[in-house]
């Protein structure tokens, strides 16, 4: 299992968090992890899922803001 990355001050990117989450899922689906590792993997997966959800929500909000500005300007030009 990889380190949690908490010692790093920067959060992982969406892509790296998603890739790590996919690896955790694959490892857990194999069913060969000891209970202690499964619990640690589940906890890390939950952290990564929350991080990905937050980053997606932030991106959606940015898109809404950009679309509202673009649509107002586009509609006014017609």
Give a written overview of the molecule.
- The protein is mostly helical and 78 residues long.
- It has one domain (14-77): Helix Hairpins, CATH 1.10.287.1040.
- Helix content is 77%, strand content 0%.
- The chain has helices at 14-30, 35-77.
- Helix 1 runs antiparallel to helix 2 (35-77).
- The relative contact order is 0.12.
- Mean pLDDT is 84; it is low at 1-8.
Write the layout of secondary structure elements.
Blueprint: H1 14-30, H2 35-77
Helix pairs in contact: 1-2
Total domains: 1
CATH architecture: Orthogonal Bundle
CATH superfamily: Exonuclease VII, small subunit
Q: Could you tell me the mean pLDDT? A: 84
What is the tally of beta strands? 0
The amount of helix comes to: over 70%
Q: Which sequence of SSEs, written as H and E, runs from N to C? A: HH
| End-to-end Cα distance | 57 Å
């Amino acid at each position: 299992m990889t380190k949690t990355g908490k010692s790093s001050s920067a959060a992982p990117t969406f892509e790296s968090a998603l890739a790590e989450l996919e690896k955790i899922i694959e490892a857990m689906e194999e069913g060969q992890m000891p209970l202690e590792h499964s619990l640690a993997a589940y906890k890390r997966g939950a952290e990564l899922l929350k991080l990905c959800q937050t980053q997606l929500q932030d991106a959606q909000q940015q898109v809404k803001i950009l679309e509202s500005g673009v649509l107002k300007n586009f509609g006014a030009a017609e």
